[in-house]
């Protein structure tokens, strides 16, 4: 295991200030080249690159104090003002994982309040925003207690986020992030994400409109989907394809080649869902409405030449991608599409 982020003396003494509150907001993200399949210790089978979604975020606050009374809970978790057992169990497991890096957290009790600006478990990478917000809070607590004069190390926060959710590592940074070691991107790593900005200006104006096809919880979680890649016969081909697509996509993004970029992004999305359909057992997360919208996007593009594209996460909901200069045309079209869905 990579241990470069361990800090051996981070145990609390009686001189430490151990009571307070922190709050962080962290966005979700949408991968353009997908990560699907992982190795032990939450490491990716291939590199990925993502847009950060500023308006789809998790807001998390943590109140912390010394764990003086052993009858008190170590962690108390509230989501939108309600207890959420399944996610609370995941947070307990996550905190246990973090003990080698944050040994002081075993000496504190935590009251965690969290809320999303979007539906969770519906395929909009809610675990990415949730775990990155949580990791930022913990890094901030560490900073306040041990190094109050320093700012948070975002690479360290990305590393900690990854241990909770692989894609969460990319949510630490604005705009574009790369996670996973790639021979085509300097300083890229399997252990944390890095910001990426070597792109044509047109991509800095891109919109991502999320069309919520369904708010239902996914029938198969992303964690299970990653596990199913272990025995997927197409997995080795996929990992080679993903590395090739990373090389190709970053070239298109530097050149401003929207047409080829969009074709590749759409193919990546459909490849992700093809891997789900070829797993054992196989499963479907797209719905008939998902397919209707995909066909409508392609029909609009063929008819008008507008640079409108789609991608999908591990769920049925559609991310509609387009540059700012066609915002009005896409908004008008979206309003019409929503009437007939």
Question: Can you describe this structure?
Answer:
There is one protein chain. This protein has 8 helices and 11 strands. It has helices at 85-98, 126-146, 154-164, 222-228, 235-255, 258-277, 288-304, 327-340, and strands at residues 20-33, 38-39, 43-44, 48-66, 75-79, 108-116, 176-179, 193-195, 207-211, 309-312, 318-322. Strands 1, 4, 5, 6, 7 and 8 form a 6-stranded mixed β-sheet that branches. It has a 3-stranded antiparallel β-sheet with strand order 9-11-10. A two-stranded antiparallel sheet has the order 2-3. The longest helix is centred in the middle third of the chain and has 21 residues, at 126-146.
Can you lay out the helices and strands and say which pair or pack?
Layout (H helix, E strand, L loop, with lengths): L19 E14 L4 E2 L3 E2 L3 E19 L8 E5 L5 H14 L9 E9 L9 H21 L7 H11 L11 E4 L13 E3 L11 E5 L10 H7 L6 H21 L2 H20 L10 H17 L4 E4 L5 E5 L4 H14 L1
Parallel strand pairs: 5-6
Antiparallel strand pairs: 1-4, 2-3, 4-6, 4-7, 7-8, 9-11, 10-11
Helix pairs in contact: 2-3, 5-6
Q: What is this entry, summarized?
A:
It is built from 8 helices and 11 strands. It has helices at 85-98, 126-146, 154-164, 222-228, 235-255, 258-277, 288-304, 327-340; strands at 20-33, 38-39, 43-44, 48-66, 75-79, 108-116, 176-179, 193-195, 207-211, 309-312, 318-322.
For the biggest sheet, the summary is: 6 strands, mixed
Give the overall average pLDDT.
92
- Unreliable spans are none
Q: What is the alpha-carbon Rg in Å?
A: 21 Å
Topology, number of strands: 11
Count of DSSP-assigned helices: 8
Which term fits the overall shape?
A: globular
In whole angstroms, the N-to-C terminal distance is: 48 Å
Strand content: 15-25%
Structural class: alpha+beta
Helix content: 25-40%
One letter per element, helices H and strands E, the order comes to: EEEEEHEHHEEEHHHHEEH
């Amino acid at each position: 295991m990579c241990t470069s982020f361990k800090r051996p003396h981070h145990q609390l003494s009686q001189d430490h200030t151990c009571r307070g509150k922190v709050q962080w907001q962290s966005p979700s993200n949408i991968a353009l080249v997908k990560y699907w399949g992982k190795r032990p210790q939450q490491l990716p089978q291939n590199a990925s690159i993502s847009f950060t979604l500023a308006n789809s975020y998790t807001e998390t606050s943590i109140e912390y104090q010394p764990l003086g009374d052993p009858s008190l809970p170590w962690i108390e978790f509230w989501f939108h003002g309600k207890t959420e057992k399944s996610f609370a169990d995941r947070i307990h497991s996550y905190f246990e994982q973090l003990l080698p890096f944050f040994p002081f957290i075993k000496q504190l009790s935590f009251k965690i309040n969290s809320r999303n600006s979007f539906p969770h478990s519906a395929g909009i990478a809610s675990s990415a925003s949730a775990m990155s917000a949580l990791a930022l809070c913990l890094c901030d607590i560490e900073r306040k207690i041990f190094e109050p004069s320093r700012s948070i190390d975002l690479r360290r926060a990305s590393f900690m986020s990854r241990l909770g959710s692989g894609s969460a590592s990319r949510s630490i940074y604005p705009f574009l992030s790369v996670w996973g070691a790639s021979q085509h991107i300097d300083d890229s790593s399997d252990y944390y994400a890095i910001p990426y900005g070597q792109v044509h200006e047109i991509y800095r104006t891109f919109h991502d409109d999320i069309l919520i096809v369904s708010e239902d919880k996914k029938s198969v979680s992303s964690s299970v989907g990653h596990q199913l890649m272990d025995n997927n016969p197409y997995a080795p081909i996929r990992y080679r394809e993903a590395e090739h697509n990373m090389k190709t996509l970053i070239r298109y993004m530097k050149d401003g080649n929207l047409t080829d970029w969009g074709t590749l992004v759409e193919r990546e999305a459909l490849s992700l869902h093809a891997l789900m359909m070829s797993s054992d057992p196989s499963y479907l997360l797209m719905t008939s409405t998902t397919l209707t919208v995909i066909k409508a996007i392609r029909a609009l593009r063929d008819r008008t030449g507008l640079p409108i594209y789609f991608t999908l996460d591990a769920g049925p909901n559609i991310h509609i991608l387009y540059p700012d200069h066609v915002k009005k045309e896409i908004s008008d079209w979206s309003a019409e599409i929503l009437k007939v869905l």
